[in-house]
Amino acid sequence: MIQRFGSRSARSAWYALPGILFIVAEGCAGRLHPRPPTQGPPPSSASLPSGRGLPFTATAYCSGTKTAAGTKVAAGIVAADPGLLPIGSMIRVAGLDRRYNGVYTVMDTGPKVQGRRIDLYIVDCAEAVKFGRRSAEVSLLQPSGNAHARPRE
Hints:
Strand content: 15-25%
Shape: elongated
Number of strands: 6
Largest sheet: 6 strands, mixed, barrel
Number of helices: 2
CATH superfamily of the largest domain: RlpA-like domain
Strand order of the largest sheet: 1-5-2-4-3-6
């Protein structure tokens, strides 16, 4: 049986098509742009245990002349979220290549350094770009007490 466009059942199928497409699109929408798993709010600096390593994402930067603390940028300085690691805090970074592991002083902040992220200062910009994004383990050695603490290498 051949149906003509003007027939009642053909028109009903055309009216149902947008509804069917909406249902299919709604079901696929969550798979197109999945939401990252919620890990809860980032811990506050009061809940960051001293000496115990926590997973962080490490990146590197090479630009700028002054830190948020007002000191000159230098090796051994790291930028971090001040709500998690206040300026002046001493941290130990592990889990990276040997040359990047060590003790750093949090002396800088940045708009993209939020939560469990750190940004290591590396003098050579090509090396900083090559560093990319890596997983690291950060432990708090000494909470902030002196915002003008000198970085250790």
